[in-house]
Fold this sequence. Notes:
6 helices, 41% helix, globular
Amino acid sequence: MTKLSTIISFLLIISFICLFFSCNTTQEKVENKAIIQDSAEITQAIPLKVPAEVKDDTLISALSKEVLMSLKKKDYKAFTALFHPIQGVRFSPYASVDTTYDLVFKAADFIKQLGQKKKINWGPYSAGEEDITMTAQEYLKQFVYNADFLNAEKTSLNDMIGGGTTHNNLVEIYPNCPFTESYFSGFEKKFDGMDWCSLRLVFKKHLDKYYLIGVVHDQWTT
Length: 222
């Protein structure tokens, strides 16, 4: 082998060694960068350690109070602002929610109805002999806020208090929906508790926010 060939071979070996270490270093940098990015993404994905049920229970109680306050003040803009934006709110005069007859309103439609004096059919009375024909204002007075439910005798969250002969199917109609109940055991001693009444407010989550979806009135029925 000539001296020139020896030099060329030596240079080729040196070049190969340099190239090998250069590739390894580049690959390590790429892998390290990927590890750093993955770690950052994992860190961002870790949720806050706040018990969801505690947070939701507090929120539902606060929303219920807002609804009751707006009804007491007759601030119907505030009331309808809490309506479910897609499904609206169903109004049930008794514990047995009737998906056939109970009226459902979107916020804008209910505000419009409040401004009208025309009586509408809200479904049958508990006896079933005749229909509840009232204006929206009259219905709210008799079958929604007929007592000072903001300052109720008893309140509950996801638990029933009042109960009569009417079948209570709230949980069946609104599965997995939180609700509150505001309850009075009665007002006049002579009625021996037969003038009790309740108002149940049902909520449903939409886009990480809870809205009112059902207003269920309950009272003593024959």
